[in-house]
Amino acid sequence: MNISPLKAYLRPNGSWGLRNHVLVLPLHSALSSSARAIEEASQGAVAITHDWSGEIDADLERIISTLAGFASNPNNFATIFLTLDSPNERRIIERAESLGLPNVVHLSLADAGSMHKLVDVGILEADQLLTRALLQERIPAPWSAIVLGLECGGSDALSGITANPALGVASDMLVDLGATSILGETTEILGAEHLLAARAITPEVGVEIVNTVLRYESSINYEGIDLRGAQPSRGNIEGGLSTLEEKSLGAAKKAGNAVFTGVLEYAEVPSAHGLFFMDTPGHDIEQLTGFAAGHVNIVVFTSGRGTPTGSATMPVIKVATNTPMATSLKDLIDLNAGTIADGIESLSEVGNRIFNEIVAVANGKETKAERGGHHEFSLSRLYN
Amino acid sequence: MRKILILHSSDNVAVCLSEIIKGEIIEQDGKKFSALESIPRGHKIAIANIDLNEGIIKYGERMGHATSRINAGSHVHVHNVLGDRLASSDS
Amino acid sequence: MKMEGFDHGTRGIGVRDYQLILPSVVCSTHISRRIAKDVNAVTFSHQHGCGIIGADVAGIGDFFASLADHPNVSSVLVVSLGCETIQGQELAEKLVTKNASTKYQIIQDSGGVEATVTAGITAVRSLQESYPTKRRPLNDLRVGISASSNSSIANNLLEALSALDIYTELVGGKSPADSFSHLMEKKVHLILSFPTGDQPASGFPLIPVINIASDSALHQAISADFDVPAGTPVENIVKLILEVANGRETIAEINKSGEILAPRLVRST
After folding, report:
1. Does the keyword Lyase apply (chain C) (predicted)?
2. By C-alpha distance, which of C113, C94, C178 is closest to C144?
3. Is residue C220 part of a domain?
């Protein structure tokens, strides 16, 4: 039972990739269209785009960690950086290398001579890297190769009863086997933090969980922001969720019952195995970006309303909380947990199905989001 | 099939597993009451009388408070519930 | 020089004839791109529409509305996920009040990705049929200038254009993308951009951008990305402006470079 059926790509620093992507990462927003052009013309490179134009402000360090962590996600065989060769861009590349990125290609616009030439060089580099990536084989990997991200979005009142606790079952099974699992979305544990803190490995970790929520709560109060309309969102309210606390109590079920090993900053890479909490926004895409930057290599995303969201680097498994949505949005849902509310399956049966799907996808099975080519990206900013 | 799901013994609300029609009699888990209004699937129904400002309990935990008296069988949602934290009082 | 533009009804006369596929939330950007590709329309990626609070809810809605109301836009398809803070349907309804040639498609109500793409393409085609291209004389060209206010060449251009009775607007934002967005809200037909020496040439999906180089090392190294070399006389630039207004493509248009940057006021939650 404890022998892992996993096969993955071993990286030089000992981490494991469940995919072998060649990522094209522009480090300036003006190079976004070049990155996209390279993706479209190459034989399978993936590109992301973003809106950072090198601004040096209070969010700079967060942006550097995010881009460097994303570039060095173990699912990336290589990252092609498109830059203006500024000092901060060079810092991002150095940080990505120190985080274990095995293959780095740095293309500067000035060296290429024009956007057009940058795209041409980028396509050549991408295709060469893709050829090399194809030569690398998956080898048997331990359970600890899995770093699972727990995500929910477009929640409804069934989220906390069906998909989230079923994902909790799968997460507990993986953590027991030695894998890592990360819960995020500080907004969405507000009201449930005392339950999570009670499961912390040490009193200090418990205090850290509570303080992370308090820090968030006081920053929102301090700015005098009215969360109505955003939390719970209008979609949540239509789905039957009435308060932020109710949403949080349901959202926290994703983390099962395992002990919390530690708290991570946004985009921080965990240095041990076990269950972690990462301080991220509730915005689905910013949250997924933080996970990818924190070297999560596979995500399970539960949804009541349905979403096409995917990631350029992590496979994202979509689990529906209710059968009507799973039926109507077939081409974006991988698994239906609505069977629990229908009285057809038990929580542990669905938990086992999610576990098996995680293993299959880790070993290369394509998710619906991967098949559709969905890979949204969003930089998280605290100071706008 | 179950009409409602009570998640914890101390809860005063339950989740409707299918749409509830006004006047429907709900008899489950030792409780019996009639639905005072129609309630969509996935939304909450009061399974006890809840006083103004009393806590709304779901999953055995407090998820907010009542902004008016809520009778058993009523729809429990944003029109009569407010979160205790990060919620404005004028909604 | 006589100019001819595109009659876009209440939006005005445009110098380009673009259909806009407007994702109301980051989650619908990929599907928007698939639709746009199929029907040769303009779309853009952004990170907004959900988890936004306070002033941003109205602010980003207004920003999207001004994109949809731009004179270079012939018709608009709003693509919404369904559960986001900015509801696609409401956004479209708000846009319809300004302009009839607006439709919307909601992913969560459409039966999934492929069904949304198919329905979206059908909707855009029917907009094309209902609102065919009509050419009209253009008498009130509006030119935006993205430059720091102390740029002498930008100020000389302002004077030259004013002398021709051409409306001008100068914005010096924190980046070209930021300035372009502000100029878009001012409904300029085309933009002259003077990026600082450390910034590259850039474009904007709905508006032709003429990039003017400085003598910085970066700009010299990538001179092919600029329409106008450093030191070009003002009258030559004015001539180019009129040509671009009449349809000549800028290098940023040829390269399809540049993104639309929606300004954000508040942190996300």
Report:
1. yes
2. C178
3. yes
